[in-house]
Amino acid sequence: MTKLKFLLLLLYFVPVISFSEEIIFSDKTLESDIRLPDWFKLSFLDLQDDLDEAVADNKKGIIVYFGRKDCPYCQALIEKNWSRQDIVYYTRKHFDVIAINTKGTRNITDFDSFVYDEKSYSLKMKTNFTPSLLFFDREGKQAFRLSGYQNPYRFLAALEYVADAHYQKQSFKSYLAQAKDALDSGGNDDLNPQPYFDAPPHNLNRTRLKAERPLAVFFEKKNCHACDILHSIPLENQSIQQQLEELDVVQVDVENKEQLITPSGVKTDSVSWSDKLELHYSPTIIFFDEAGEEIIRIDSVVWLHRLERVLEFITTRAYKKHKSFQAWRMNQAKVK
């Protein structure tokens, strides 16, 4: 049995909270600021200095945490993951964690010696969703990133994936496959249908002729509890349904080799396509523009308010005016 599978099976059989409780929470903007763990590094935000100190302390690198004080997904990470002694111990043993406020104004010196404020650096690093965790190895190279909230099992696996340098040899998806039994938490035997899903076979090619509407692709699988919850709660919301009806929407099974043509015109199958896209979370939603270019992806736990905002970004064609979802959100905050 691999070390990963042992750790995940241990977490699976001795859970603090159930799988459903781990990924179900309100994602309304918080009314009071969250409190970061007191063991986060007190940093002057010179990342090379932070990394040098971590290496000198025999750690594997640093984690740069991008968050907001009013972010419910950040709160979930802290209260559901970084409240567990085993996860805290493993994190502190192998990494120093440096916190960056995506709305902040403090200066940050990047590894390239350029200085940014927190907002600008967050944009530079394309942290569309909070929390975003960027893992840097001992050489200052970005080894991995996690966007959004991940449950404790997957989060511990990500820590181990980087700490043991598995990222140098395999994808996170293939690494997780070693603990498939521990990660799979039951679910429906079939994919969840929706009336707005276009029926297969899927010819999604947008290179020969631009489509009239953006495209949303739901990458899912059978026996996926997180997929079931997405369909039974957020996708049952009338506002969400109305927004999705303004798009071309398809569902792809990441474990069944369904033949298809991708938005970029490549003839392939659903498994190969998901591998090419380096997907490791189900369900993942990827949005493509009228010409077949990826706009944004949601590859973590997502609830009503975040999904509504992303769909607003897509349905209003705001992606044509703003470089990223994050830049659009910042611009909206200025207008308000």
Notes on the protein architecture:
With 336 residues, the protein is of the alpha/beta class. The chain folds into two domains: 3-183, Glutaredoxin, CATH 3.40.30.10; 202-335, Glutaredoxin (3-Layer(aba) Sandwich). It has helices at residues 3-13, 19-23, 47-56, 72-81, 85-94, 118-124, 152-163, 172-176, 180-183, 225-232, 238-244, 270-276, 304-315, 325-335, and strands at 61-67, 95-101, 107-109, 115-117, 132-136, 142-147, 202-203, 215-220, 248-253, 259-261, 267-269, 284-288, 294-298.
Structural class: alpha/beta
Termini separation = 54 Å
Q: What does the largest sheet look like?
A: 4 strands, mixed
How many individual domains? 2
Low-pLDDT regions: 9-17
If helices are DSSP runs of H or I spanning 4 or more residues, what is the number of helices?
A: 14
Any idea what the CATH superfamily of the largest domain is called? Glutaredoxin
* Overall average residue pLDDT: 91
Helix content: 25-40%
DSSP strand count: 13
Q: What is the annotated CATH architecture of the largest domain?
A: 3-Layer(aba) Sandwich
Topology of helices and strands:
Blueprint: H1 3-13, H2 19-23, H3 47-56, E1 61-67, H4 72-81, H5 85-94, E2 95-101, E3 107-109, E4 115-117, H6 118-124, E5 132-136, E6 142-147, H7 152-163, H8 172-176, H9 180-183, E7 202-203, E8 215-220, H10 225-232, H11 238-244, E9 248-253, E10 259-261, E11 267-269, H12 270-276, E12 284-288, E13 294-298, H13 304-315, H14 325-335
Parallel strand pairs: 1-2, 7-10, 8-9
Antiparallel strand pairs: 1-5, 3-4, 5-6, 8-12, 10-11, 12-13
